[in-house]
């Protein structure tokens, strides 16, 4: 999916690669007729008392390449849709990522009739909503039990647009938890107990630097270095923060005085910037950190003792090749104070949307509801059981083929996802925690999504300083005091205060509701 430049002091979001509502049975609204979903007692099974429905083909557009073996899986999905008497079959078309957003927009403008597609705030969702090109789903969601229950209420509530459900939120986690993947064998080699805090990790890194000659302490992709102020902070994965990230890079919201400030005034970050300066000077962070783009490979080759981790179901799997090194063992370290829940805004970045031109909206929602039953969800997301995958308990699976469906376009449901059986134990533990809505406290600015229209000129002028000043400050390349002052001068010098005032205005409107 996409790479989003953002620093989160409280949650993380992916993503991350990084998300669906209510089900069957009752006709809670007036959407009755041929497209009404059958209940199947919540099992996704056909009701033998129903007359066979005419099958309507639903056309979908999604980004990316067609998965290996997709035709066989889609055939099995359509056969089960027919057996369950849903009244629909799927015609799924994949478009190249490079032109996906434009292609869908052109199809809509040309009046092509299709029934569902992936949209997102980072694609064209705002424009599609403003133009009335996609339809609200509230009533249809409310009458579909399986769909509604497969997505936590917090996730539904936090992913509305103008107070309405404009797309089914697709995601697997409810907030991002950050941490480290470390070489457990090295920790044990030097007699260190299990690492539980950021200070423990720091001690481990300095021990490696002092005693190892061929293994360096810590590596991170320079493009992810905006995460360093999150990682090396004692408030990591807790609600014990004074300032929370607004999802507008470099700007934060103070919980103490309810004011928006720049990163230079976000006191929670002072510790992180100072640590980054020290780590860079001491060689804990590479002198080449700004250009580093091979962190995953370098860690897997055994050249580093620790790297960055996010509990998103993806990041931890990147480092399993390190286990091929003779004697190497890995463990996940996620510093977390169990007495303090971390904040989350439950925001997701991908949505299944229905074009206004579709004549089959109810049936699309019937299929979304059908896909919210575990056996149906598993069929499309993991493939044909016994051929493409096999179950490992209720929550894991072993992959048997090359079939990999991009769940973020259609099937992701927080309550239904399985984890690969080769996952590190700690990775699985933290991904499951990140997927539980109740693990988090709701952020006080949940629902805020910045609309820069009123300050688009000033905002555009501030954004280059993310790469040129904020990243070097986060990496330790720019010393803390000098970097903060430079960031302040640069941003305020191009109208940044006007941007902060507009963010403040919009957050105040959300908080007042």
TrEMBL record:
The keyword Cell cycle does not apply. InterPro entries: Bact_solute-bd_prot1, DUF3502, SBP. The keyword Secreted does not apply. Residues 444-509 form the DUF3502 domain. Coiled coil: none annotated. Keywords: Signal. Pfam families: DUF3502 (PF12010), SBP_bac_1 (PF01547). Residues 1-23 form the signal peptide. It comes from the Bacteria. Residues 30-40 have a biased composition (Low complexity). Residues 30-52 are annotated as: Disordered. This is DUF3502 domain-containing protein. It comes from Paenibacillus borealis. The lineage of its organism: Bacteria, Bacillati, Bacillota, Bacilli, Bacillales.
């Amino acid at each position: 999916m996409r790479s989003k430049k953002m620093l989160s002091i409280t949650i993380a979001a992916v993503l991350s690669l990084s998300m669906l509502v209510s089900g069957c049975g009752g006709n809670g609204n007036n959407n009755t007729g041929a497209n009404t979903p059958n209940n199947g007692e919540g099992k996704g099974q056909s009701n033998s008392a129903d007359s066979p429905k005419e099958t309507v083909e639903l056309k979908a557009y999604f980004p990316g390449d067609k998965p290996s073996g997709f035709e066989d899986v889609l055939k099995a999905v359509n056969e089960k849709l027919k057996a369950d008497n849903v009244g629909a079959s799927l015609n799924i078309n994949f478009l190249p990522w490079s032109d996906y957003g434009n292609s869908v927009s052109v199809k809509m403008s040309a009046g092509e009739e299709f029934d569902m597609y992936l949209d997102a705030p980072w694609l064209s969702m705002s424009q599609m909503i403003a133009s009335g090109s996609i339809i609200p789903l509230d009533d249809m969601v409310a009458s579909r039990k399986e769909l509604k229950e497969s997505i936590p209420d917090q996730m539904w509530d936090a992913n509305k647009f103008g107070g309405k459900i404009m797309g089914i939120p697709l995601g697997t986690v409810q907030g991002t938890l950050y941490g480290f993947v470390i070489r457990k064998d090295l920790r044990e080699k030097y007699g260190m107990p299990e690492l539980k805090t950021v200070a423990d990790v720091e001690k481990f890194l300095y021990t490696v630097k002092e005693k190892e000659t061929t293994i360096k302490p810590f590596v991170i992709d320079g493009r992810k270095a905006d995460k360093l102020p999150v990682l090396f902070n004692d408030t990591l994965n807790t609600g014990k923060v004074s300032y929370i990230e607004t999802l507008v890079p470099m700007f934060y919201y103070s919980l103490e005085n309810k004011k928006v400030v720049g990163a230079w005034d976000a006191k929670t970050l002072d510790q992180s910037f100072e640590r980054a300066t020290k780590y860079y000077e001491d060689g804990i962070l590479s002198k080449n950190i700004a250009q580093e783009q091979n962190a995953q490979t370098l860690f897997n080759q055994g050249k580093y003792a620790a790297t960055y981790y996010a509990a998103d179901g993806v990041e931890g799997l990147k480092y399993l090749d390190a286990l091929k090194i003779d004697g190497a063992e890995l463990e996940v370290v996620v510093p977390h104070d169990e007495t303090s829940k971390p904040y989350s805004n439950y925001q997701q970045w991908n949505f299944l949307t229905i074009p206004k031109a579709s004549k089959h909206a109810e049936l699309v929602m019937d299929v979304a509801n059908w896909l919210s039953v575990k056996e149906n969800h598993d069929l499309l997301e993991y493939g044909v059981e016994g051929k493409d995958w096999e179950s490992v308990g209720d929550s894991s699976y072993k992959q048997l083929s090359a079939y990999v469906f991009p769940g973020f376009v259609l099937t992701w449901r927080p309550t239904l996802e399985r984890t690969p059986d080769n996952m590190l134990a700690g990775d699985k533990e933290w991904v499951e925690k990140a997927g539980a809505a109740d693990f988090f406290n709701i952020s006080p600015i949940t629902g805020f999504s910045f609309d820069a229209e009123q300050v688009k000129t000033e905002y555009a002028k501030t954004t280059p300083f993310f790469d040129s000043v904020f990243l070097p400050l986060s990496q330790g390349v720019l010393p803390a005091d000098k970097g903060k002052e430079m960031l302040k001068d640069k941003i305020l010098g191009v109208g940044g205060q006007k941007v902060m005032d507009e963010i403040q205005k919009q957050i105040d409107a959300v908080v007042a509701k």
